[in-house]
Every structure is written in structure tokens, then in C-alpha cells.
Amino acid sequence: MAPEGTKAQILRLLQGWGEATVTHLAQALDMSPAAVRRHLDGLRAEGLVDARPQRQAIGRPSFLFYTTERAEELTSAGYSRLLGRMFRGLVELRPEEISGQPGKEVLGLVFEGVAERLAEQYGPQVAGETLEERVPQAIRVLRAEGILDRWDRGPEGFRLTNSACPYRRAALATEQACSADRLAIQLLLGRPVEQVGRVVEGHPFCEYVVKEEVAQVHSREGPAPSELRRRGGRRRAVAVT
Questions:
Q1: Structural domains in the chain?
Q2: Is 80 exposed, middle or buried (0-12, 13-18, 19+ CB in 10 A)?
Q3: Distances (CA, A) of 213 to 55, 125, 135, 150
Q4: What are the tens digits of pLDDT across the range 31-57?
Q5: pLDDT of residue 193 exceeding 90
């Protein structure tokens, strides 16, 4: 894979953080502030980055840079995948599921369907017998979706993180977008998953915690997505709690 260019790195960092100063970007990229400014000037000329002043107690205001909607449309495949799955979910909703339901509840059903379709799509690739085997398998398949990119193991269990939100504006509009990601991870791993940090709330990354299994046994707690298909039914959000 070709190395990521500096402009692409800046866009990725800004999309993950929401906004940042030249100094912050320069530290992250190990570059001089002057070099970062030159790249930002180019990105602003292309309509991919904009800036707003940040007042300081002393001295002149600095500027916070952020990506534009044009940049998100051009660089994020997450939106197109999310919209495609949401449209499919809307079409598949049955009249009895939405009759008399407020819009928020209907949206929740749509996002739940998005999570279930993700789990069904990738379930065959997350087939380890133990949680320790399934976690790295889930990271591999969800990295391409922009949902997770790393994991480690701590005293509380497995810690899964993502440095950039795949659909930031959607996550700002409704927490249900993040809940769908959490549910997809939960269905793939067959274990309860807790989200403990969100980029859109100022956390440096999206973070999830998966508790260790009480005993490493040769079965999951609940049916795997592949088993769900064989049974011919949809699993709702309450299946793993």
C-alpha cells in the first residue's frame, strides 16, 4: 500500500478530532508549523478545510481548522455505506413494526437493522471459539468499515478503539449511529459491549470495553450471526445484554 500523503493525513486527523490548531497538527505529524500551514492553505484552496478563530486570554487568537462537508463526501466511504444500509432497512421495515411509532423509534429500528446486517455480513469471518480469538478477527473486518482500528487487553477486559468517526455528522445528530456500531461489535463478538468514549463528545477516540469471558469455552453466549441466518430470523438488540 502506498504511504499516506501529508494532506490525506491532515484530513484524516481533522475528521477524527473534529478540529485542531496548527500546533496540534504539527506535533501529531512531527512537522514544522510552517509546513503544516502550507498544506492547510492548499486544502483550504481546494475547499476541503476551513478555519474559525479561537480566542485566547493573552495575545492574538489562534485558528481551529476543520474539514468541510465537501471533504467528508470525497474522503469518507462510511457515509455511502451507512446510507445504503439505512435505505435497505427502511424498505424492509414491516407496517406492524412502525405503526404508531414516533420518528425516533423508527430511526432506532433502522439503525438496529444496520447493525444486524453488518454482523450477518462479517459473521463468518469472526468465528473464533474464544473471545481472545474473535476480538482481532472483528478488528480486521471492521477496520475496513472505519468502525474499529486497534485493540488491547487490560484488567477490565478487551479495549477496542477507533481514532476517527466514520460518519461524524450523523453521530452528532443522533447517538443511535454510535449505538448501531456498538451493537454490531456486540453481535460479532457474542459478548456485552460498553461504549465508554465518543469522538463527537470530545474523547480522543471512540472506545469500547468488552468484559472477559468467565471461562474460555467452546461456545458463544448467544447465536452467532451465521447461526441467525440458518435459523431464518432477525435478532433484535435485546439478544445480547
A1: 6-75 (1.10.10.10), 78-239 (3.30.1380)
A2: exposed
A3: 49, 20, 12, 20
A4: 999 999 999 999 999 999 999 998 776
A5: yes
